[in-house]
TrEMBL record:
Residue runs in coiled coils: none
Xref: CDD domains: POD-like_MBL-fold, RHOD
Source organism phylogeny: Bacteria, Bacillati, Actinomycetota, Actinomycetes, Micrococcales
Name of the molecule in the record: MBL fold metallo-hydrolase
Organism: Arthrobacter wenxiniae
Ranges where the Rhodanese domain occurs: 279-372, 378-462
Keyword set, alphabetical order: Hydrolase, Metal-binding
Amino acid sequence: MLIERIYDEDLAQASYFIGCQAKGEALVVDPRRDIAVYQSLAAANGMKIVAVTETHIHADFLSGTRELAAATGATAYVSGEGGADWQYGFEAERLGDNDEIVLGNITVKAVHTPGHTPEHLSFLVTDGAFAETPGYLLSGDFVFSGDLGRPDLLDEAAGGVDTRFAGATQLFASLREKFLTLPDHVQVHPGHGAGSACGKALGAIPSTTVGYERLYAWWGPYLAANDEQGFINELLDGQPDAHAYFARMKRENRDGPAVMGARVPLGELATTEVVAGLAADTVTFVDTRSNVEVHEGTVTGSLNIPAGKSTASFGAWVVNPETDKNPLVLLAPNQGAAQEMWDHLVRVGIDKIAGYVTSLEGLPASTPRLIQPEELEGFDAAMVLDVRNRTEHAAGHIPGSHQLSGGRVMWNLDHLPAEGTIVSYCQSGVRNSVAASALRRAGYDVVELDGSYAGWATWQQSPDSVFSN
């Protein structure tokens, strides 16, 4: 048996490739939409992908189940659990509790583990060539290394009302009746790692075991004492802000993400073509450099979506494909870098890319406005906006600032002043640059606090600060 973990650092998301060498068949669990990595794994191991499935209706990324099934001819499987309100809207085989997918000597059994979502499945894997009982659990967003999947996303992102309490109760039951009944040696392979917003304290360790979590996870004592209310209180306390784009992911993943098919490689665009598109507002420019570079000058009206580990997340903060109809023009050093960025963006459903340019030369330019910490006290601001998470704001913030996380700003413009200047900040300046660029493009007068909260906190300790007196 072969189990390969494919990890996306951008979204802290793990998918899994399970293959039977004897029969040459493979199953992919929780695939992303840029599917070449799975096809390459199959080819390298002489296998055919015959099945593809997912643990639940995801909120943080757009599923590649339909994409991979269409490309390979594999059978798509999805959960049939959760009741009428949680049924998928596209054609696929439905899996119920204890249903199995067989790949040669390998048996993959669906286990209904509600809590994070009502329809959630985990998958118990048995390598029949080696043992008669399961040795592995693909736990999706049920159990993470050191944490659990949050049960409040349906309230935060899908329009639910107080569903978190029922979800937390279900999670307690799933742990007691499903997870803790497994032998200690069973290896647990979760769907997310550190940095994911699907939990509040995910570990960076890629896998764990049932026995280790039983002994050391924060929830262990609550289960041992059968303290359901204490468990619920602790589980729901301090969960991070849910990004607004999660609601779109939920809808699209339930109804069925669009199948892209083979994508034509991105082409380099002529400067004159981009200038004309910007003037006509038929394209949106994306500056993919760091906030430091952007602050030295960028394209007027551009979005700052830095290339790197958070491209998909930041992209989904500021681009809503349901309302933003312009294709994107990417700034990239070469075609390969542009293509890689596009791979990240399609993971959150941002598919329309017009092409790329390698330079800002000849494009309309402007320089974002910055304010120094020492200037803030006397600055006439309509609002000082903290785009960090609410837990960061609660731990310390600039007095009088209003908290609205970067992943929610563009969906909550009614919380912002209609007139006047907004001074915005995050912790170090990266998230702030992303959010501020989108607000400027939307017509707001935004000044970024240079150095953001970290810079302000350092300055307030200096002898010249009014806060140090």
